[in-house]
Amino acid sequence: MYPTGFIGVEHQLWLWLIAMIRPGAALLAAPIYGARATPVQLRLILSLAIGMAAMNSAVFTVPEDGVASFAMVLLVLGEVLAGLAMGFALQIGYSASFVAGETIANVMGLGFASMMDPQSGQSTQVVGQFLSILATFMLLGMDGHLLLISYIIQSYQAMPPGGPMLSNDAIYGLVMFGGALLGAGLTIALPVGFSLILIQLVMGMLARSAPALNIFSVGIPVALFAGLVLMAIAAPIMGQGLVDAIRQGLEQAQIISEGR
Questions:
Q1: Distance CA 106, CA 114 (A)
Q2: N or C: the chain end with fewer CB closer than 10 Å?
Q3: CA distance readout (Å), 173 to 13, 86, 109, 167
Q4: Contact 121/203 with Cβ under 8 angstroms?
Q5: Residue 1: is its pLDDT beyond 50?
Q6: Does the model's pTM come out above 0.90?
Q7: Looking at the predicted structure, is the pLDDT value of residue 4 above 60?
Q8: Is residue 222 very low, low, confident or very high in pLDDT (cuts 50, 70, 90)?
């Protein structure tokens, strides 16, 4: 027998656990929160805090058949899917910085220069790392990390635990939004990349007109120096492109939170 003061504690703990699933999945897939440098304990605390706040806007119930039932499995799958979809939508907009960085680095001749990315733990090119840091500042500056949390809490009104899952239109919209990642990244890299391509064409014409000219000893330093100067000039435009890509990711996450 449980003491009188502990009656209902197990049931309350299960409710908190259910409330943590969706925020935990969203934070795992989202940028900054899902970085390897972010402690797991911090994600757990944030998931519990967000879940407890969401309990005020939705009805949380444990399936009548108990936690070891098919209904509970469906509930967990629905929570995980909803959370991953919202976090991944923001991650897609954030990842446009890596696409832009890869494009610029290859044109500049820095495809061989890479460093460890703290977000994914994988090796990435230095230009992509620079743009990812810039995108992180933009995301924090526009309160995107707080907007994602607000969307997670709002999603409990449209998709309460144990209720309707994500619609086919929401999943299809997320897939189609993923296809826009390449276009967003190329748009960000367009000012610098197109200018560097023109410089490469000029160096090619010089190599044809003056065969004695060592194109490798001249072209690579010119492309590298021009790329650095162009990135400094186009930094405001590239920053605005990153903001637009992140905003599109937040809008897609809001659409998913509304069950549309």
A1: 12
A2: N
A3: 35, 12, 36, 10
A4: no
A5: no
A6: no
A7: no
A8: confident
Distance of alpha carbon 97 from alpha carbon 168, whole angstroms: 29
Residues 203-228, mean pLDDT to the nearest whole number:
76
Of the candidates 122, 124, 160, 145, the residue with the CA atom closest to the CA atom of residue 249: 145
Query: Is pLDDT of 26 > 90?
Result: yes
- The one-letter code for the residue type at 92 is I
Q: Minimal CA–CA distance to 135: which of 33, 16, 246, 27?
A: 246
End-to-end alpha carbon distance in the chain: 47
- In SS3 terms, the chain reads as CCCHHHCCHHHHHHHHHHHHHHHHHHHHHCCCCCCCCCCHHHHHHHHHHHHHHHCCCCCCCCCCCCCCCHHHHHHHHHHHHHHHHHHHHHHHHHCHHHHHHHHHHHHHCCCCCEEECCCCCCEEEHHHHHHHHHHHHHHHHCCHHHHHHHHHHHHHHHCCCCCCCCCHHHHHHHHHHHHHHHHHHHHHHHHHHHHHHHHHHHHHHHHHHCCCCCHHHHHHHHHHHHHHHHHHHCHHHHHHHHHHHHHHHHHHHHHHHCCC
Tens-digit pLDDT profile for residues 160-190? 887 777 878 888 888 888 888 888 888 898 8
- Write down the pLDDT at residue 149: 92
- Residue 122: pLDDT over 90: no
80-95 residue pLDDT tens:
999 999 999 999 999 8
AA identity, residue 82? A
Q: How far apart are the C-alpha atoms of 129 and 53, rounded to whole Å?
A: 35
CB 219, CB 203: distance < 8 Å: yes
Give the residue from 116, 107, 109 showing the smallest Cα distance to 196: 107
